[in-house]
Amino acid sequence: MHPQHALFFQYHRLQHCQRTLLSALPQKSSTQTFSLFPLLPAELRLKIWQMIAREPQSIEISCLFVSSNQHTSGQWFTHTPPPIIFSICSESRAAGFFEFERLEFGKGQIGRDWGTVYVNWERDCIWLCNDLSSIWARDFLGKNEQARRKLKRLSVGKNLWKALNPMMGLEQAQLRGMKSYATNVVDNLRALESIEFHS
Q1: How many domains does the chain have?
Q2: Most buried among 9, 38, 178, 187, using CB within 10 Å?
Q3: How far apart are CA 137 and CA 116, in angstroms?
Q4: Which pLDDT score is estimated for 65?
Q5: Partner residues linked to 154 by β-bridges
Q6: For residue 77, which phi and psi values (nearest 5 degrees)?
Q7: Residue 15 forms part of a structural domain
């Protein structure tokens, strides 16, 4: 990683990623181990792996502005660590691939992925970072096919949500004469069930 990028990530995490910082605090560690786990029937081990994988998580995402002579773009990243299921053993990792999907970015998007982000669209909440501009957020929520079809839980700042949905709550008379590009992102999110506003 380029030294300037590493510096940016440290600054970004300290300035904007309060949720991740809280989760990064040291947790109580247990010295107890269950050495007989490998001897359990495969069906029972699979159920345990599924319970671990199905624990809901908030995936905090943001976008790093990237500019070159040819084009301007952004690279999406997260400070949220990958689900623990992928770091235990090969059996847990195999179970994890049944529960999670890799977040993909299409050719039509101005943002592209930087690293692998795994999402369980049924349970996980996408947390849009506080410093995310409305341009990048609109690109993600409006053009990312996975988000449009599968995103059920979203956490976003109120001001960003208002910028993404400029016509929400307006009367028909107010809508007349408004430019057609001022569309509501929420209209494209087909599976959205809940929105949580963070500060």
Answers
A1: 1
A2: 9
A3: 19
A4: 77
A5: 126, 195
A6: -150, 170
A7: no
Supply 50's token pair: 């599924």
Which tens digits make up the pLDDT trace of 145-168?
999 999 999 999 999 999 999 877
User: Would you place residue 99 in the very low, low, confident or very high pLDDT band (cuts 50, 70, 90)?
Assistant: very high
Which three-class secondary structure state does DSSP give residue 2? Answer: coil
Q: Is residue 154 situated within a structural domain? A: yes
Q: What is the 3-state secondary structure (H, E, C) of 47-92?
A: HHHHHHHCCCCEEEEEEEEEECCCCEEEEEEECCCCCHHHHCCHHH
Range of the domain at 93: 41-171+181-198
Q: Summarize pLDDT for 46-93 with one digit per residue, the tens.
A: 999 999 999 999 999 988 877 666 656 778 888 899 999 999 999 999
* Residue 155 located in a structural domain: yes
DSSP per-residue string spanning 27-43: PPP-----TTGGGS-HH
**Contact status, residue 77 vs residue 114, Cβ threshold 8 Å:** yes
In a domain, 1, yes or no: no
